[in-house]
Design brief:
By secondary structure, the protein is of the alpha/beta class. It is built from eleven helices and twelve strands. It has two domains: 183 residues, Isopropylmalate Dehydrogenase (3-Layer(aba) Sandwich); 140 residues, Isopropylmalate Dehydrogenase, CATH 3.40.718.10. Helix 4 crosses helix 6 and helix 7 packs across helix 8. The longest helix has 19 residues.
Length: 325
């Protein structure tokens, strides 16, 4: 039996429903799983009609697989509003958030094997009352997962993040020895469990340029990151660093390691997206459920134009299916 994979609608004012629909109808996806669209049926229908996406939508029981139609788990019930492509709204945030809640619930109740989240807007989610810095933190709470680490995965590299969606001015104060060890531990365990790497190797990046130059350009690398790496080694993790990020990627040292721990969002995601944009996958390591998502956002600038590329969504489904097995 093919695994069932929930695909959430994302922000319906962005490309969320477009990429969700195109992915659900994709032969590459239907070959490996039964996709279950999660979101308001009428919004999916509106998007399909507007963008002339071929295929049949059917609201039906999850146990009923269809070879010709895409199954929709309808979470409409009063949250429909006119689509305003290109702008985050309270309604689009409510729709995206409700879909996430239901998809998590389906995973927890083992009615589906994994979930893939289409791009959602943090602004819209906040307007709707979901006060989280991102979908990862939302899903961690809803799934009652105690430890989670955001990972970006491509054929070129795997990036784990110590901090995620924070203003740059607050990054240093949010990096502690304990946090680095915890996030690295989640990534290390995921490499063993999900990626089947028996003895993973981790590279840990520095926070400051030149790893602080012995305290001249900041003391965090000597006082926080280096002791964290020592603790990781004491816990039998194969970890090295701290490596100055520019030289690390400039010398292509990422090829030597199974994963890289970046201290903040752009430090890790810029090299990953430069090398693999549109083909990378966001994976939430450590969750009680399996959740992946594409490596891009809501793309409001092309919303409603039918131009969205689904390569990363398909890759996200493929990785979710791989892990579910």
């Amino acid at each position: 039996m093919k695994p069932l994979v929930a695909i959430t609608i994302g922000d319906f004012n962005g490309i969320g429903p477009e990429v969700a629909l195109k992915t659900a109808f994709s032969p590459a996806v239907r070959k490996i799983c039964t996709p279950v669209l999660v979101g308001p049926l009428d919004v999916f229908g509106h998007t399909q009609k507007s963008l002339k996406i071929k295929g049949k939508l059917v609201k039906t029981a999850l146990s009923v697989a269809s070879n010709s139609a895409a199954v929709v788990f309808d979470v409409g019930d009063g949250i429909w509003a006119d689509v305003q492509w290109g702008s985050p709204t309270k309604s689009s945030g409510k729709s995206a958030g409700t879909a996430i809640e239901h998809a998590v619930d389906l995973c927890l109740k083992k009615k589906v094997h994994a979930m893939v989240t289409a791009p959602a807007s943090k602004e819209a989610l906040n307007l709707a009352g979901y006060n989280f810095p991102g979908q990862t933190e939302m899903i961690a709470l809803f799934s009652r997962s105690k430890r989670v680490a955001m990972m970006l995965v491509s054929e070129v590299m795997r990036i784990g993040l110590v901090t995620t969606h924070l203003p740059l001015r607050t990054v240093a104060e949010n990096i502690t020895k304990e946090k680095i060890v915890e996030k690295a531990g989640v990534v290390y365990e995921s490499l063993q469990r999900n990626f089947r790497v028996k003895h993973p190797s981790l590279a840990v990046l520095s926070l400051n340029p030149h790893a602080g130059d012995r305290g001249v350009i900041g003391t965090e690398d000597d006082e926080v990151i280096t002791p964290a790496i020592s603790e990781m080694k004491a816990q039998q993790m194969n970890a090295e660093g701290p490596f100055p990020a520019d030289a690390f990627f400039g010398k292509r040292l990422h090829k030597k390691y199974d994963a890289i721990m970046a201290m903040y969002h752009d430090q890790g995601l810029i090299p990953l997206k430069l090398s693999s944009f549109g083909n990378a996958v966001n994976f939430s390591a450590g969750l009680n459920i399996i959740r992946t998502s594409p490596d891009h956002g809501t793309a409001y600038d092309i919303a409603g134009k039918g131009k969205a590329n689904i390569s990363s969504m398909i890759a996200a489904v493929q990785l979710a299916v791989q892990f579910s097995r």
